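Regression test attached.
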Amino acid sequence: MDYQTTLETVSQQVLSEPTRGKVASYIPELSKVSAAKFGFHLTTVAGEDYCVGDSGERFSIQSISKVFLLTRAIQEVGPDLAERVGVEPSGNLFDSLVQLEYEDGIPRNPFINAGALVVCDLLLSVLRHPKQDFLDFVRRLSNCETIEYDPAVIASELALSHRNRAILYMLKGYGSIKNEAEEVLDFYVTACALAMSCRELSHAFGIFANGGRLLHNGKSVLCQRRVKRINAIMLTCGQYDEAGEFAFRVGLVAKSGVGGGIAAVYPGKYAVTVWSPPLNPKGNSDAGFRALELLTDRTGASIF
Amino acid sequence: MDYQTTLETVSQQVLSEPTRGKVASYIPELSKVSAAKFGFHLTTVAGEDYCVGDSGERFSIQSISKVFLLTRAIQEVGPDLAERVGVEPSGNLFDSLVQLEYEDGIPRNPFINAGALVVCDLLLSVLRHPKQDFLDFVRRLSNCETIEYDPAVIASELALSHRNRAILYMLKGYGSIKNEAEEVLDFYVTACALAMSCRELSHAFGIFANGGRLLHNGKSVLCQRRVKRINAIMLTCGQYDEAGEFAFRVGLVAKSGVGGGIAAVYPGKYAVTVWSPPLNPKGNSDAGFRALELLTDRTGASIF
Amino acid sequence: MDYQTTLETVSQQVLSEPTRGKVASYIPELSKVSAAKFGFHLTTVAGEDYCVGDSGERFSIQSISKVFLLTRAIQEVGPDLAERVGVEPSGNLFDSLVQLEYEDGIPRNPFINAGALVVCDLLLSVLRHPKQDFLDFVRRLSNCETIEYDPAVIASELALSHRNRAILYMLKGYGSIKNEAEEVLDFYVTACALAMSCRELSHAFGIFANGGRLLHNGKSVLCQRRVKRINAIMLTCGQYDEAGEFAFRVGLVAKSGVGGGIAAVYPGKYAVTVWSPPLNPKGNSDAGFRALELLTDRTGASIF
Amino acid sequence: MDYQTTLETVSQQVLSEPTRGKVASYIPELSKVSAAKFGFHLTTVAGEDYCVGDSGERFSIQSISKVFLLTRAIQEVGPDLAERVGVEPSGNLFDSLVQLEYEDGIPRNPFINAGALVVCDLLLSVLRHPKQDFLDFVRRLSNCETIEYDPAVIASELALSHRNRAILYMLKGYGSIKNEAEEVLDFYVTACALAMSCRELSHAFGIFANGGRLLHNGKSVLCQRRVKRINAIMLTCGQYDEAGEFAFRVGLVAKSGVGGGIAAVYPGKYAVTVWSPPLNPKGNSDAGFRALELLTDRTGASIF
């Protein structure tokens, strides 16, 4: 498969189509990013890299970080996680409180905000230095020591996290989080403020394509059984309210973020990340979604 | 891969575990089936068959038929289907009317009852002899001319379809179905009353493993792109309220029915059907779910 | 109190204001009525009558009939009614199925459609000739032997009662109705198709102002305790989704119908009916609502 | 009417019936109150007082304070309040976030927690010294200068107000409150921590029976039109999820609190307060509800 040509052809087609969607503005810092940015990076399980455009430029990974949080939590607590958060698609918006009320404070899955906050609470309880530990973990996954949290994004988001505070206090009311709400929020907002490039994300997501082994040295981070489970949750719950449509049109395991990134995985084959800030009405990168759809169409290969 | 040994080992383990779940009783005719029945049949894309137990005995496929209905509808109307029914997980029970009311009569996906009823309505509008056409279609897929509808199941269910009538009249109120409610119900109940064996179902589901081509003669029934889409919907919406858990633990594309059957697919590899009537609280075959989980665990291979 | 002058002044003011709202069109027969009709009739507990405009012309009372159905059912079964239908405001639309699903088929109150249908089911089970019995009952309350059901309205509505059929089959699924769905629907639609004038409605509603005694002969139809209860349900649940606003601005016990009528009661003082077909967005007569608001403002007297 | 004898007879009957319900325990300080307390105090618009039992002992009025908050807000901002909070029964629990999410942060009415919090936010914006002003206001209504906030209850509740914080941050997210969440919470919890006796509450609620004029000096606090409106909201929304049942069985305007108090009004006749700490499953004083039911049954008079 000539991935380089495919990435280039797909990019040309996507960039030739009219731009749709809007750059996220609810976090003021994110709205400063140019709508014209476009990065695309694919890494095979054999370690080959293919890239197009701004694939080396860092952006705010936001909700993509929920996958790293979940992975770290599964490493620490394993199957016990199931008592605290479910694995079913929510059928509701990612920041909805409705289902949480009907289901007594147990979040549907770890990728809606409520679920990710419970995962953060759990990590806060077991890690000695949660922020440093988590940063080290992501650096190790992507084999890159310079990855950092973006303090401007953290400050910008903390000032406006009313909805997440509402979710946290609701969880607190149900006894679903053990630490202080503000402490959990701070860790969550920090974790989502990781700045990474398409290249770094593809390398990090390599473990989900490679049976839990790091691409650069083959060391195992996660057993195959847990990789399967994380991939399954990404597929059924990874694209906010659009997981079905994404599976339907793209057919890859993936997680998106409001920074405009989508990190995707074809288990056994490759990890691929695309970045384009304008979001569709469901909150997913419009051009990113389209690029991945064209990728699986042109290669004629998807998990389905 | 020695599938025969794997099927046998898995079956022994499943049958050695205590029986849980209850045979469906809301359709009186279904409650007459012995809880002890157990069939398991795997067919590879190369056409090899492996089987255990009652894999040749026919049972009521019920909701598994929704996959055949969807496939037939996509053949007839293609992408226009998207205007009538969505592809997102519902996050609600399969027979819920709540979301239908909130979303103005557009069903979330074709595997909840509301969605399957819309698919039936659509087929009624385009097929000259819907019941015969649909029967011929399923016979062709499974390469078996003796498959029939079970009239006792049809009669038993029609007398008690209050909830489906409620859904139908609600759809009618929103203009989401064009034909008479009773006519749509009759076709739907009939289609779900197909009696098929694990062997026949595996053969029919072969098209979803084999890029849309029939296993026995290689003829194309569906293009690869549509196979991908149907498989995606099965994965995200195929197991009632338990799609996430099923993807998480099993990692195959699948559709279950209250008759105790689960037909599953590993694209590019095999189709496999398991049948055990006792259902777990979510309405899926308890032993069937477990058998498929052990199958992907032991073979170490799933779509994830 | 000079009620005649008050009615006239109020009517002039209401009719001088710009017309808002739309005549109900979902029942084709109702849409034929002139939007310009306006009737206003007040009857004191002493039996004095005051009227303005088209107060002697009959119109389709529609949901106002739910009060008569409830009254007749309480006569027959008394407190047992409480097992079949609640007395709480629903907080949802009058034809919603959402709450019915969440609350297992027990309607919130007898004035939403689901509740009125359960009341009809109950009357069908206990009355020998339900339609004739109910007609005789309303004739007796209003002291008028010529009141009739309107067959054109019945036919017009029956053909389009999809939503009520959905509610009925849902109730049937929960075991909340005992008779056949179509039979209950037929009785319900017939009862709502009573044609009555403002004058006749005011006379009939006199029992709710007069401690359960008929205005024309003082005979008791209902004990004071039951009058209190029916009036309470009218106040909290009588104006569809606008019961709070109506209590807030008008302060009378009342029930409205999509035919544009509102029958209201000031217990111990008077019954008053107003009719003007254009409905506000909540389904209540716009000018009728306004006329009653001005009536209690000008007289400076309401139940509050 | 011999109210003294009626109060005594009713009290005897209520106290002879088996005790049901439980003293509120979610605020630890409230759980210290004896379940055996029982106070009953009626004040006529002529200023006559009738009392039984612990009617002079102060208790935590809790949600009854929402009526005073609403009254004070209407004095300050009048009809503009309608833009910030509705007047419809919610049909949901008093602390639900579901409807708030579906209706974009506009609370259904001022007596559910979300609505009362918006009222508090509004008072914080317009009053110079909100706590002192509000205390002075309630002292004036009840003609008693010794009424105070209970600091132990305030501290006890503030430590556990997770759910109210969730509501506040959700409101903040919708822009429905202008002040800081913690500031609003502090004022709300303080206002609910007023300690008053049945006697003091009956005197204060006298304005709602007396057309807005203070019982002890006839001075007008509120115009008749606003009294009507506040009474209407109390009737349709004053008893949590049990407003319909309360109107149905009692037939008085009233507001309850989890401290076990219910303050009720028969407009034009009397105000009456009953206190008994054990609460029924809906959160209303069980014996208090029963006492008021017997009061209107025995006197044969209610607003209906």
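Expected vs. actual: identical. The first helix of chain B runs from residue 3 to 16.
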